[in-house]
Amino acid sequence: MSAYAIYRLPHEDHATLIQQTEGEPVECFSCTELNGKSGFVIAPFEVKENQPILLIQGESKRVACGSGDVCVREPSLDPTSPDPTYAIDFANYHSQLELGMFRKIVLARCADEKIGKKVEPMELFYRACALYPRMFIALVQTEKSGCWLTATPEILLDGEGQDWRTIALAGTMKLEGDQLNGEGETLRWSTKNIQEQRIVATYITECLEQFTGDFREEGPRTVRAANLVHLRSDFTFKLENQDHIGDLLQTLHPTPAVCGLPKREAFQFITRNEHSPRRYYSGFMGPLGQQTHLYVSLRCMNIERNVCHLYAGGGLLKDSTEEQEWTETEAKMETMRRLLYVQ
User: In terms of CB atoms within 10 Å, which of 82, 104, 289, 340 comes out highest?
Assistant: First the structure.
């Protein structure tokens, strides 16, 4: 199959398949190049010559989306033992926070999960749809990017006409035991998580002020995503001119939820120092055009033959600890890892 993307919006009972009909996907090297364009976008964290923003253009069709229960054999995890590479990165990042170089910075890592027998990417997509009805699920395959599957709760930009929305999503806690029967409403958030979410919300406010004076923030509130909960604020706003969506994306991406503050300095530090290049993890993807549904590429993996490269990250503040942050990344990777342990 040529380049394609298949996605399912949260709570929908069908998916949409877009296949590249002619040539290769359009390559862009800045979000501003998306102005006036339409198609399915897959954007990396860092745009480079061999890692462009890709726009799949072609006919789209509605396809049946698997539903029903999926029986998962939970993988055994040891979330209390950070590996040496992560320990080095954490010490490096945290020292910058202690020196006051950043208010927040996000540390990501990658873990490889071998598959005993070949599992088709499309099968993993349908498993994700069944397991995670609240999330945006997307599977993308292009020659330049490779094959990526995401199950993400974070909206980057969503809307049509003059009506648009985005969210500030940060802070993470894992649901366990009886908590899994609810929405996390009984959990109490730590000061660290509250501060992290507020940083993201403030940043988004400052971005929107550059494009509109007509916006409203609601929240934060606790929202569930798989077996995790996050703090979320919702922003709704009006855009009189939709010809400059690419400019707005250039301003928003990457948000402090996946990068840090100050944004430019944090971005440069991450790209120079993180041991595991993020590639298309913590970029964004989704349909762009008359109806736009762009999501941050979190809880994702790169599928490569019999190995799945799982990605996850966590926001570090001055009072972050290595063990807590490692445990958070393990919990986030569990979202993708569970798809490989279906009985």
Answer: 104
Cα–Cα distance between 36 and 243 in angstroms, integer?
6
137 has a pLDDT exceeding 60? yes
CA distance between the termini of the chain: 28
Torsion of the alpha carbons at 170, 98, 90 and 221, rounded to the nearest 10: -10
Residue 20 neighbours by CB distance under 10 Å: 23
Structure tokens given for 26: 């359009």
CA dist 33 and 35 (Å) reads 5
CA–CA separation, 145 and 54 (whole Å): 8
- Check if the beta carbon of residue 71 is closer than 8 Å to that of residue 83: no
Tell me how far apart the alpha carbons of residues 156 and 296 are, in angstroms, rounded to a whole number.
6
Is residue 66 scored above 80 in pLDDT?
A: no
Q: Within 13 Å, how many C-alpha atoms sit on residue 34's CB side?
A: 32
Are 169 and 234 a contacting pair, CB within 8 Å? no
Chain-centre distance of CA 183, in angstroms?
21
Confidence class for position 165, pLDDT limits 50, 70, 90 = very high
pLDDT computed for residue 78 by the predictor: 52
* Cα–Cα distance, 265 to 249 (Å, whole number): 19
84: preceding bond cis by omega (within 30 degrees): no
- Arithmetic mean of pLDDT, 313-337: 94
Closest CA relative to residue 235, chosen from 265, 206, 277, 261: 206
pLDDT digits over 256-272, tens only? 999 999 999 999 999 99
Rounded CA gap, 307 and 53, in Å? 24
Q: Which residue has the tokens 């250039």?
A: 250
Q: What is the model's pTM?
A: 0.94
